Amino acid sequence: MGALPVYPWRLAPAGLATRRQLRARGLRPGGQDVVAQLERPRRRGRGPLVAYLYRVDRALPVRPMTPGRRAALAKAMTARCTCPACGQTAGYCIPRSLGACLPCTDNRSSDREVRDGQVA
Q1: Which residues contact residue 80 at a Cβ distance below 8 angstroms, ignoring those fewer than 6 apart?
Q2: What's residue 116's pLDDT?
Q3: Is the pLDDT assigned to residue 119 strictly greater than 60?
Q4: Domains of the chain: which residue ranges?
Q5: Does pTM surpass 0.70?
Q6: How many alpha carbons lie under 13 Å from residue 106 in its C-beta half-sphere?
Q7: CA distances (Å), 108 to each of 79, 83, 88, 105, 113, in order?
Q8: What is the C-alpha to C-alpha distance for residues 25 and 38, in angstroms, rounded to an integer?
Q9: What is the per-residue burial (b if ≥16 Cβ within 10 Å, else e) of 91-103?
Q10: pLDDT, greater one: 16 or 43
Q11: CA 73, CA 75: separation in Å to the nearest integer?
């Protein structure tokens, strides 16, 4: 298998679309392989931003939302918004980097400062 064709950002040929572009049209890749990619250079010496392209003519319609899927998504979102430290629903998604709601994170950081002898 050869390498994928690479196109500059915003210059993809007609008939190819990213996942987001497919979704905006009510479509999904439907198990097809990536056929090309877009690349946009980044600043500060990091690697390029890459977006994969799929054929629009092979895309399938988005599956309809069923009551079971809707309930499962609601349950998952509730879990993402529930603080593991205090058990309260925060009203926003708890950042994984913090691991707790903001009040619990503030309490832990102030406890750590007091324990380390650095009173705020």
Answers
A1: 93, 94
A2: 55
A3: no
A4: 6-61, 67-115
A5: no
A6: 4
A7: 21, 13, 16, 5, 9
A8: 19
A9: eeebeeeeebbee
A10: 16
A11: 5
